[in-house]
Specification:
The chain contains ten helices and 15 strands. By secondary structure, the chain is an alpha+beta fold. The radius of gyration is 23 Å and the shape is globular.
Length: about 400
């Protein structure tokens, strides 16, 4: 879970970027409500995909606005000063439009926003919510050119790049669970087993290691000489000797997710597959060596792609990696035309891949914290084609 100290620190960073004259900000993206308050609507619940609001006031006060059924899905108590919980369903009366519960909550706390000037995270609220607070909401941009920004949501996404210790701890939990999933895949990915069976083994190992129910998504597909590039959810395809099984997945714990990949040779790998693996591994190491705060994301891509070119393969066909956190992918994006520059505090993946017709496709990936001196690797699964 996110800590009280982390939530307060994130709010402090947020308000340092908000111009004077703005007294409140209404947050509507559920991820950003969590980012500042630790309140998360559990996606594995009957309130999945519902909405909530967070009213932040410059003095430091935070107010959570939600309905009673959303509130009960929380994994932990929110880091807020006030809660306005509208009774939407009581097991006694018919329900009204659930979105109107938030409108009622806004009216209930009108005194906290109507007499001051504020901003709305327009990307995260409904038109009906925006209409209620419109009388007190300021248009963007506000303040001088040094503090202006295009939208509240864009500002928060920029702040999200610098992960605080409580966020990194959650990401490490994801990675530890992912390590268990990859270890399980080595034991299961054999001729005669379906992609779906490998996925189920990974999911089981992940949740046992995590100690909680969590989402596991990504690519769980076999490639081979005929189908040398495949992705997506597992199918009932039965693995054959000579296949390559790509396990590229993320584990989500309390909204945060890491992203890690290994490719397993089904049976004994061929000479061509081993050469392909060594190229991907060396490309990953080259990109890892290039990572440091202040380095251009495109330069990291070039470092990985150069290894492929030097070995006689085409340039890296997809991104070299990307940022991690509450979304997938996040900034920075490691691609040839990226404008991003790595920052101290970024959490990124590096995932070079190589797909060869007549042989198969493979991809390998680790996660890193970007520092002023280099890359601190956070994930610990073994990069290998075989178990031994």
């Amino acid at each position: 879970m996110l800590t009280t100290e982390g939530c307060l620190e994130r709010r402090k960073h947020f308000w340092s970027r908000i111009p004077d004259g703005v007294d409140w900000v209404l947050i509507g993206d559920a991820r950003h409500v969590q980012y500042f308050s630790n309140f998360r609507i559990n996606p594995i619940s009957f309130s999945a995909d519902q909405r909530c609001l967070l009213l932040l006031q410059r003095g430091g006060t935070a107010t959570l606005l939600t309905d009673n059924f959303v509130r009960r899905t929380a994994d932990a108590d929110p880091v807020v000063d006030n809660e306005i919980v509208i009774s939407w369903y009581t097991h006694k009366k018919s329900v009204v439009n659930r979105d109107h519960a938030l409108l009622s909550a806004l009216e209930e706390c009108r005194e906290r926003w109507s007499h001051d000037n504020g901003l709305v995270e327009a990307e995260g609220v409904t038109q009906a919510v925006a209409a209620i607070v419109a009388e007190a909401a300021l248009p963007l941009p506000v303040g001088d050119s040094n503090q202006s920004f295009s939208s509240v949501g864009t500002l928060i996404r920029d702040l999200r790049r610098q992960k605080l210790p409580d966020e990194i701890e959650l990401l490490k939990r994801c990675m530890a669970a992912g390590d268990a999933g990859h270890a399980a895949a080595f034991n299961v990915a054999k001729p005669g087993v379906t992609e779906l069976e490998v996925y189920i083994a990974i999911q089981r190992a992940v949740e046992l290691a995590a100690g909680c129910a969590c989402a596991v998504y990504g690519d769980f597909r076999a490639t081979n000489a005929e189908l040398y590039k495949a992705g997506g959810l597992p199918t009932k395809y039965v693995l054959r000797d000579g296949d390559l099984f790509i396990a590229d997945f993320s584990v989500i714990i309390h909204g945060y997710r890491s992203d890690f990949t290994n490719t397993i040779a089904v049976g004994h790998p061929t000479h061509q597959q081993v050469r392909q693996f060594e190229t991907c591994r060396d490309a990953l190491l080259a990109a890892e060596s290039a990572v440091k705060a202040g380095v251009r994301a495109s330069d990291v891509y070039d470092s990985a792609s150069a290894v492929l070119l030097d070995r006689g393969y085409p340039a890296l066909a997809h991104h070299c990696g990307h940022g991690l956190g509450l979304e997938h992918p996040e900034t920075p994006i490691l691609v040839p035309e990226s404008d991003d520059v790595l920052r101290n505090g970024d959490i990124i993946t590096i995932e070079p891949g190589l797909y060869v017709e007549g042989v198969g496709g493979m991809r390998f990936e680790h996660n890193y914290a970007v520092t002023t001196t280099g890359a601190d690797r956070l994930s610990n699964h073994r990069i290998s084609l075989t178990k031994s």
